[in-house]
Batch of 2 targets.
Target 1
Amino acid sequence: MAAVTSPETSPPPRVYFQTPAGTTEEPETPVRKQGRVTVKYDRKELRKRLNLEEWIIDQLTDLYDCEEEAIPELEIDVDELLDMPSDNDRAARVKELVVDCYKPTEDFVSDLLDKIRGMQKLSTPQKK
């Protein structure tokens, strides 16, 4: 037996618009979707991390008296610091990284430790 469709149960017809051939109109700019990164991580933590990294770059340019591009190759891994058990270990690691700086680094190290206190490690979340 065939099912009887009534106007109330069948979906309304769809209307599609096409640009006439020969026209070169630019399509409207698509709406940006929220990036995957902000879905996986907390936006506030990402903002904190970005601000911290910008602060580190500013401090290193002052310490080394040079432009950002001329800073010696060193990587201050915030996640690595957060994994360390104590502030003494963190301070020793940062001092080890900036050992070739001729300016005093104690203020930089203590300020950095203050800034990372309470931050969360940005690890990849597990899929559920």
Note: The chain has five helices and no strands.
Target 2
Amino acid sequence: MNAVCGGAARTLRVAGRHGYAAEFSPYLPGRLACAAAQHYGIAGCGTLLILDPNESGLRLFRSFDWSDGLFDVTWSENNEHVLITCSGDGSLQLWDTAKAAGPLQVYKEHTQEYVQGSYVVK
């Protein structure tokens, strides 16, 4: 994962994780959220990484683990600490970066897959 802060590309490697989506905070300059997964999202868990720039690159501000790969992330338009992610299990997770544990809420509405003309219940 690379981030451009102050004109220079910065890199942070996280062992066993592969970044899928990254988004800068609209509230805090330089703060970056990254949705990541193990094993390229094929199997394993996911991690939401909250990163801040520093003199030598990026530093980990906070991370949250989830039982399935995380594939997208976005910041709340109403609160500088709140993000939402989506995962391979079809759920959405609501996170608060001001709290060390999470998620605040999980929305699991997707229960069927559309496969070749019919729905398959998971």
Note: The longest strand covers residues 57-66.
